[in-house]
Write a structure and sequence with these properties.
A: alpha+beta; Alpha-Beta Plaits; six-stranded mixed β-sheet; 25% helix; B: 45% strand
Chain lengths: 149, 105
């Protein structure tokens, strides 16, 4: 088994790959660094923080609340870039909303923040939309690899 | 307007026999640009909270005399068979203009 956070990132990747057209998006379950543009939107993700909440139950069970940042980056004609990034959000939000998370998360992930980034240094403009999802999961404090349903 | 002696030097530097693109391979709104140097270097760039990307940075450098201050935002250039849209340009005041493009996809 892998750490539950790893399992959760893999589930996000699975959910996104099932919903996003493979000719238009390339999804990674971890953060990516420098890469050559492939013509597809790059979707990568990273959990930036993971906090154990106050003990809510007797015993060793703990609820964790974590934030996952999903980044979608693409190159496009500059006049189209913002429209495409908005469409990316529609696609990502739809994919995550349609997925069944009941066996791994306490409830469906919550979109809590959206940021943007961009660069116009090259022959096409590049932009990114960063979606922050917060979610909770429950584990035994001594076993970070196993979800408590 | 720069002196003719400078224009002569530029014509030599930008000639296709030296550093310039082959004759007939650079077009500005369909009109041939005679003598131009094209750089299309792959560069890595940062986007703040994002993945570094690598993409070409197309730059065309040419004697400015043939443009007569008529370059305009959005002009279409054909270079090595590909289409580019003029984004911005820098005229150095000594007879050379450097142009930056958006690649037409």
């Amino acid at each position: 088994m892998a750490h539950v956070r790893t399992q959760i990132r893999e589930r996000f990747k699975t959910a996104l790959e099932a919903a996003l057209p493979s000719l238009q998006y390339e999804v990674f379950a971890s953060r990516r660094y420098a890469r050559n543009d492939t013509g597809k939107a790059t979707v990568d993700m990273a959990i930036s923080n993971d906090q154990t909440q106050a003990r809510e139950v007797m015993g060793a069970a703990r609820v964790h609340v974590a934030s996952l940042y999903i980044r979608v980056q693409r190159g496009a004609q500059e006049t189209l870039l913002d429209d495409l990034l908005d469409a990316d959000e529609v696609a990502i939000v739809g994919a995550i909303a349609a997925h069944d998370w009941s066996d791994i998360l306490e409830e469906s992930p919550e979109l809590s923040q959206v940021n943007f980034t961009e660069s116009d240094e090259t022959g096409i403009a590049f932009g990114g939309i960063i979606l922050r999802y917060d979610f909770g999961y429950r584990i035994n404090k001594d076993d970070p690899e196993t979800i408590i349903p | 307007m720069v002196g003719s002696f400078i224009q002569d030097d530029l014509a030599t530097i930008f000639a296709s026999s030296e550093f310039g693109e082959a004759n007939g391979t650079v077009l500005w709104n369909g009109v041939e640009v005679k003598g131009a140097i094209f750089d299309n270097e792959g560069v890595e760039f940062q986007m703040g909270e994002g993945v570094s990307q690598i993409y070409e940075q197309p730059v065309l450098t040419a004697p400015s005399v043939q443009f007569n201050d008529r370059l305009a935002d959005g002009d279409i250039f054909t270079i090595r068979g590909a289409l580019y849209r003029l984004k911005n340009w820098l005229d150095d005041g000594t007879g050379v203009v450097e142009m930056m493009f958006e690649k037409v996809k």
